Amino acid sequence: MRGVTAEHEPNPFSEPAWTTPHGLPPFERIAPSHYEPAFERALAQHVAEIEAIAGNPEPPTFANTIEALERAGQALRRVSSTFFNLTGSHTNPELQAVERAVAPRLARHGSAIYLNPDLWARVSAIAEDGLSDEEKRVRERYRLRFRRAGAELDAEAKERMAAIAARLAELGTQFSQNLLADESAFTLELSGEDELAGLPPFLRASAARAAEERGLKDRHVVTLSRSLIEPFLVFSTNRSLRERAYAAWIRRGENGGDTDNRAIVTETLRLRAERARLLGYPSYAAFRLDDTMAGSAEAAVGLLEEVWAPARARAEAERDRLQALAREDGQTAPLAPWDWRHYAERLRRREHALDEGEIKPYLPLEGMIQAAFDTAHRLFGLSFTELADVPRYHPEVRAWEVADRDGRLIGLFLGDYFARASKRSGAWMSGFRSQERLTGEVTPIIVNVMNFAKGGDDEPALLSFDDARTLFHEFGHALHGLLSNVTYPILAGTAVAGDFVELPSQLYEHWLEQPEVLRSHARHYRTGEPMPEDLLRRLLAARTFNQGFATVEYTASAIVDLDLHLSGEAESGIDPLAFEAESLRRIGMPGEIAMRHRTPHFQHIFAGEGYAAGYYSYLWSEVLDADAFDAFREAGNIFDPATAERLRTYVYGAGNLRDARSAYTAFRGRLPSTGPLLRKRGLAAA
User: Fold this and answer.
1) What backbone torsions phi and psi does residue 423 show, to the nearest 5 degrees?
2) Residue 175 in contact with residue 525, Cβ under 8 Å?
3) Does a structural domain hold residue 217?
4) What is the C-alpha separation between 438 and 415, in angstroms, rounded?
5) What's the Rg (C-alpha) of the chain?
6) 111 and 208, same domain (yes or no)
7) Backbone torsions φ then ψ of 568, nearest 5 degrees
8) N or C end of the chain, less CB within 10 A?
9) Residue 504 maps to a domain
10) Residue 485 and residue 649: Cα distance in Å, rounded?
11) Are 458 and 416 found together in one domain?
12) Is 513 exposed, middle or buried (0-12, 13-18, 19+ CB in 10 A)?
């Protein structure tokens, strides 16, 4: 993407269609100054399309109303998908300024559509008679979308709903930009062997590469990219530096000044609670979970409570063993959160003879990409062909054509794997285009974005096993988008219930842990030799090591999320840190463990509404994925063709053709229990 443009240069978004390979955005020709006029034109076009639908003198039918709504807005979808993908993965001050301007405007535009009384009258008048099953599902989703936006409210309440939506868009944008600013601003410079003590060669190489990218020659820096900060906390033997790094990591979004997110959190919670009340719900959590597989906040809380007690007990036992190890080391101070990862790695080495530095050479990024591709080939018959000459928004982005077993093109997959200052933290899947057949055979363009640390000079990126799991997780989401097989855009790909969307991603992680996959793809980056059987055995034997910690840090975040959005105090104003502390006190949070996401940097729930009151979804989906993988075990083949075909038909390819319970039952023949989940995490009673 270009940083500047000539004032009179043609705007690529004015072109009716792009002639690039696969219709990719022509990133090299798009400059930040193109976006606002492109949004202006696309919004005006969409408004005209909506007015024509709402004002149609013909009686409302599925074709002239709902199908027309599905066809409308193509220009706006094109500019929005391009723009918002870049604001997450490769932003700059110019794009951030545009984002602040357009986010509330897009929210007001959406409100104007779903609060339009003439449009709602037409949508609500359409009967099911004569519709196909897919059309009935589309009708149902549109009616629900209008109702949840406030279509049935009075004029005054509608006006307030629109104002709330616009303000929430502003707040979510600012939250995300503040967090990126905090993450980009921090570097911990390491000088001398005392400050590098304990860091293995791969981590020193990554820290040197990070320093070089910041103009620091022959130096080492640790950034707040998870792929650098977490291994530093694992390996550094300098306790005071671990504490400094940990403090910066845990205090993102609460450092005072312009990037402090606490006031944003308070206002966001107040507005969400007000909106829920206007719609007749007792809380925002009740509103959000009404359209999920769980169905209610009580069901989600029940699952979290079922897991919390055994997870906390296990974490406390882990803590005692780590404290004993620290004492052996001469540490008289109580175990602190910045000590946990360090001593957990030491204990894993002792109990399982397993060292992260021993594992990583067998998990080069390229090998793990091929492992994910090969798994998709063996399950679904897909093949991947890398493309060299295609537009890309950053030189490091890679592109593959994806074909079905019969050679038919399925879509395009982009991989953006490395951390950089212009990219927000985390890992995610998104799309530049979704699959649909309403306007022709439209194939998807799907992207996975990661934040892996680069290798040293002339060395490949080496992944931890957790990194490799993240790669498989996000590729599971990518397959959910690539394999989508629906007619209508509203049903495509990952447009499913929030607590069902993690099933395809978390289920895909299971194949990484299978000896059959690791024997084929876990190969030393220098010699090409497969991972030794003894190391493979030790790696898999340690799968549930430290699971008390992992489950507690996640579950605590999910509980605080629900507590925040169930609170009756939200409309009157919540102090986010005091509220967080009280929630953690109530559940007996071990002091040596912090939430995976503290409230001021909890991007999942405050940088937009994606997982708001829905962070529990990972655990809910884990109930499903643990049970779903058992279907392959029961078939006696982890690549069983019949089971894989059902999985593709009812889960990966089905989009939102069915509600989540029906989709899972169609695949598995029944709904799951929590037993497989507890066994997977090592939390089941002996």
Assistant:
1) -115, 135
2) no
3) yes
4) 28
5) 25
6) no
7) -75, -10
8) C
9) no
10) 9
11) yes
12) middle
- Alpha-carbon separation of residue 624 from 39, 296, 379, 668 (angstroms): 40, 17, 19, 10
Measure the CA–CA gap between 413 and 399, rounded to whole angstroms. Answer: 6
Together in a domain, 131 and 197: no
Point out the domain boundary residue: 136, 152, 168: 152
Rounded mean pLDDT, 580-603: 98
Establish how many alpha carbons lie within 13 A of residue 409's alpha carbon, considering only the half-sphere containing its beta carbon: 14
d(CA 415, CA 655) in angstroms, rounded, equals: 22
Are the beta carbons of 495 and 655 closer than 8 angstroms?
Answer: yes
Q: Between vectors from CA 274 to CA 182 and to CA 607, what angle results, nearest 5°?
A: 20
Last residue of a domain, one of 200, 229, 251: 251
CB atoms within 10 A of CB 610: 16
Domain that holds residue 247: 186-251
**Between the CA of residue 388 and those of 246, 391, 459, what are the distances in Å?**
40, 9, 21
Nearest to 461 by CA among 399, 430, 409, 419: 419
Residue 3 has pLDDT above 60, yes or no: no
Looking at the fold, whether 107 and 200 belong to one and the same domain comes out as: no
Quickly state the pLDDT bin for 405 (edges 50, 70, 90): very high
What's the domain count of the chain?
3
Same structural domain, 190 and 136: no
Q: Report the CATH number at residue 486.
A: 3.40.390.10
Let me know: does 261 contact 598? Beta carbons within 8 Å.
no
Please say whether the beta carbons of 88 and 423 come within 8 A.
Answer: yes
User: Which residue type sits at 451?
Assistant: N
Cβ neighbours of residue 645 closer than 8 Å, sequence gap 6 or more: none
pLDDT grade, residue 557 (50/70/90)? very high
pLDDT at 26: 98
Question: What six digits make up the tokens of 430?
Answer: 């998104």
**Contact at 8 Å (CB) between 549 and 344?**
yes
User: Would you say 352 and 545 are in contact if contact means Cβ atoms under 8 Å apart?
Assistant: yes
369 in a structural domain: yes
Q: For 573, phi and psi rounded to 5 degrees? A: 110, 125
CA–CA distance, 532 with 524 (Å, rounded to integer) = 10
- Same domain flag for 74 and 148: yes
Residue 264, SS3 per DSSP: helix
Q: Which helix (DSSP H) or strand (DSSP E) does residue 182 occupy?
A: helix 155-185
The reply to whether 474 belongs to the active site is yes
Query: CATH no. for residue 26?
Result: 1.20.1050.40
Contact 293, 499 (CB under 8 A): yes
Asked if the structure places residue 685 within a domain, the reply is no
- Cβ atoms of 372 and 470 within 8 Å: the answer is no
| 439 shares a domain with 391 | yes
Q: CA 423, 426, 432, 437: dihedral to nearest 10 degrees?
A: 180
* Same-domain status, 101 and 202: no
Q: Which of 254, 474, 553, 609 is catalytic?
A: 474
Q: Rounded distance, CA 570 to CA 281, Å?
A: 13
The model's pTM: 0.95
Instruction: Write out the DSSP string of 394-411.
Output: STT-EEEEEE-TTS-EEE
